[in-house]
Amino acid sequence: MPRVAQLLGAGAATMLWLASVATAGVTNPNISVIGQPFTRWTDQAGDPSAQRAILDVGETEFVYDDYLNPYGKGFFTVSLSGDGVTLEEGYFSLLRGLPLGLTLKGGKYRVGFGKLNPMHPHALPFAERFGVMSYLPGSGAFNETGVDLTARLPAPGDWSITAYGDVLQGDSFRIARSPSLAPNDPLLDSGDRAQEPRPGVVGRLAAFGQIGDRSGIEIGLSATHGTNNVAAAARTTVFGGDAKLKLWTSANAYLLVQGELLHQRRDDAGWDGAAAAYTLTTINKTGGYLFADYNFRTRYNLGASYERFGDSYMDVTNQAVGAYAGLALLEETTAFRVDVVHAMPGTPAGAVSPDAVNTVTARVIYSMGPHKAHQF
Amino acid sequence: MTRRLLFLLALCALFSATPAAAKVRVAASLNDLASIASSVGGDQVEVFAIARPTTDVHRVEALPSYMVKVSRAQIYLKVGLGLDQWADAIIDGSRNEHLKMVDCSKGVHVLEVPTGRVDASMGDVHPNGNPHYWLDPRNGAIVARTIAEALAEVDPSHAADYRGRAEAFARDVESAFAHEKQMAAAFPRKSIFTYHKSWSYFADAFGLEVVENAEPIPGIPPTARHLADLVAIAKSRHIPLLLQEPYFSGDAGQFLAREAGVRAVVATPCCDAITAGSYLAHFDTVLHAIGDAMKETP
User: Fold this and answer.
1) Quick one: closest CA in A to B65, which residue?
2) Fewest Cβ atoms closer than 10 Å to its Cβ: which of A43, A340, B34, B269?
């Protein structure tokens, strides 16, 4: 039995035991439905919709959450999109009752690496995640089945220092290798044993300090490690540092500045037909993003972003600048957001410099239920 | 050997005994609840509040530093009635399994309880009624008794002190309220506008009539049509002032002042400090501000 499954089983057994001793009544969960239709225009060469605006219903999220008993909560997020119906998140969270003030989370969830990855897209002030986030395992988001144990560490004053440790199933680390065309390439027979589980791990240390009445600064360090090719024993490791500063400038206006720096160290597996052995090429890439968002009069926000990162699969450095604006119409149940991104793809050595790509996205985020189109 | 044993016994006694002077730590969502807790708890409690008086109490961010503070508390005082739902995230994040949660709305006569189905087309309506009950000082006396019982449960050795102080606070409320009612009775006009429905209990307590709110429905910013209606009402009924919180836009107030001579009185719905006495002093402050504005209105 894989270790992750054992841990999950133990967590589920604990929940069942706690449920049996709890006196909570039977209730229905809170239900929220969040729609995110958008229109987009791009001048990217080769895009079939280039120079034409497209309309898309986007992703619809169904969020179910509530207390399970006095000790824990349950969360489910079901996503409907062009990819079909997927369980984006489904986990229990033990909030109290464990020794040393530990909390335990188990199930499928957006992994708490850095500040941006755990956020759902409807909570972002901009339309797309930054390209540098592709350093993390998984497509779209680093979202895995696993167990997360969290401890609050002793800290001076009202500082909050929290340590997180996760053991993950590890499937999101897998990278499909291109066939080598050698007749003895095991990819043709065993598929590089991609179905075999190999757990991944995540660690994070985050500190939050309050500035004045409502402002605060948060800094964090994260790391994750897992196997991207089981047969070749190829690994991926990502290190990250993040900082977020939120400064209230008046009763209903604040400035938020956030940035992350990521470094990916990845073994790329290959097959040497002559030697009948796997080869490993180690790739090191670094990149980061920075954005500033000014939220004023409670309902409006304006922001700008910059990112620069080494492309994961080409020896080039990509850059992008963006500007965005938002309006939360009424009580954040209906929000409008527009963003403009000017992406500057890197130029491979000896190649002609590619054109910059401009993309304009306008979104409406509407929600029914307690989960709103909340901003940062 | 005997000396070592005595030393160990002394050490055990030191760590097992509860210090006689240990204070009960009380966390509160608002300054007002914290101030009442200070009055009731006296020197036997240590009190702090989460929301600043200038903050919109409907929207408070659950900062990790608040969670750390609440992790050290023994009692949490919630407003209840759906106002401070953000407190749940702070309480959950505190990981404090010994925390006693107290819903301070218990026993309060709740105003504006909607009948029938409630949905978002009605704006930000609280399904269990208007939650701004602390703005009637008579409800402060009810809250004091609720807090006294919670403190008595957590710290039974001082139960009589807590109950005694709650009764003394209720008497203070009675005398202060009698004086403040006289102040309000002397106002040349009794009809006012308020921005949000925060002041319903206040108006009810002091005999004021809230003719209209700047928000057409709760939580919805003023529209041009609604403001035009308010101008007409202000002129026909000689409304002297608009009472509004500092965190709402001043645009509506400026428009009403320009078009209908309505003065905007900006006042926080929460008291300034968590100290004993601050809660009752807040009513004086707001009533004086209203009185001054009325004097200046032609």
Assistant:
1) A158
2) A43
Tokens of A26: 């039977």
Using an 8 Å CB-CB cutoff, list chain A residues near B247.
Answer: 251-252, 298
Residue listed under structure tokens 């919630």: B78
Cβ(B207)–Cβ(B181) under 8 Å?
A: yes
Report the CATH number at residue B234: 3.40.50.1980
For residues B66 and B211, membership in a common domain is answered with no
Residue B214 inside a domain? The answer is: yes
Q: Which of B179, B211, B242 is the last residue of a domain?
A: B179
Contact B241, B297 (CB under 8 A): yes
Within a domain: B17: no
Tell me how far apart the alpha carbons of residues B74 and B90 are, in angstroms, rounded to a whole number: 14
Q: Which of A298, A329, A333, A371 to mutate to test the interface with B (most CBs of B within 10 A)?
A: A298
Q: Is residue A376 part of a domain?
A: no
Q: In what order do the strands lie in the sheet with B100-103?
A: B45-49, B24-28, B75-78, B100-103
Q: How many domains does chain B have?
A: 2
CA–CA separation, A233 and A229 (whole Å): 6
Q: What is the Cα–Cα distance from A28 to A74, expressed in whole angstroms? A: 12
Q: Does the residue A375 lie in any domain?
A: no
For residue A55, tell me if it sits in a domain.
yes
The answer to whether position B68 is within a domain reads yes
Domain C-terminal end among B148, B179, B210:
B179
Distance from C-alpha of A236 to C-alpha of A171, rounded to nearest angstrom: 12
Measured in degrees and rounded to the nearest 5, phi and psi for residue A150 equal -125, 140
H/E element holding A34?
Answer: strand A30-35
Do B166 and B29 have their domain in common?
yes
Is B120 inside a domain boundary? yes
Query: In this structure, are B221 and B285 located in the same domain?
Result: yes
Sequential pLDDT tens for chain B (298 residues): 455 545 544 444 444 444 446 899 999 999 999 999 999 999 999 999 999 988 888 889 999 999 999 999 999 999 999 999 999 999 999 999 999 999 999 999 999 998 888 887 887 788 889 999 999 999 999 999 999 999 999 999 999 999 999 999 999 999 999 999 999 999 999 999 999 999 999 999 999 999 999 999 888 889 999 999 999 999 999 999 999 999 898 999 999 999 999 999 999 999 999 999 999 999 999 999 999 998 877 6
For residue B246, the number of C-alpha atoms closer than 13 Å in the C-beta half-sphere is 12
Q: Residue B16: phi, psi to the nearest 5?
A: -90, -30
ipTM above 0.90, yes or no: no
Q: How many domains does chain A have?
A: 1
* Å between A67 CA and nearest CA of chain B: 10
Residues B150 and B241 in one domain: no
What token pair was written down for B74?
């023994």
Give SS3 for B89: helix
The pLDDT tens digits for A117-164 are 999 888 888 888 999 999 999 988 999 999 999 999 999 999 999 999
- How many angstroms away from the CA of A64 is the closest CA of chain B? 16
The verdict on B73 and B166 lying in the same domain is yes
CA of A41, closest CA in chain B: separation in Å? 32
Contact (Cβ atoms closer than 8 angstroms) between residue B54 and residue B120: no
CATH number of residue A288's parent domain: 2.40.160.10
Closest CA to A29 of A83, A65, A77, A70: A65
The tokens of B189 are what?
């006009």
**C-beta of residue A33 within 8 angstroms of C-beta of residue A62:** yes
Same domain, B255 and B163: no
pTM higher than the cut 0.80: yes
A7 CB within 8 Å of a chain B CB: no
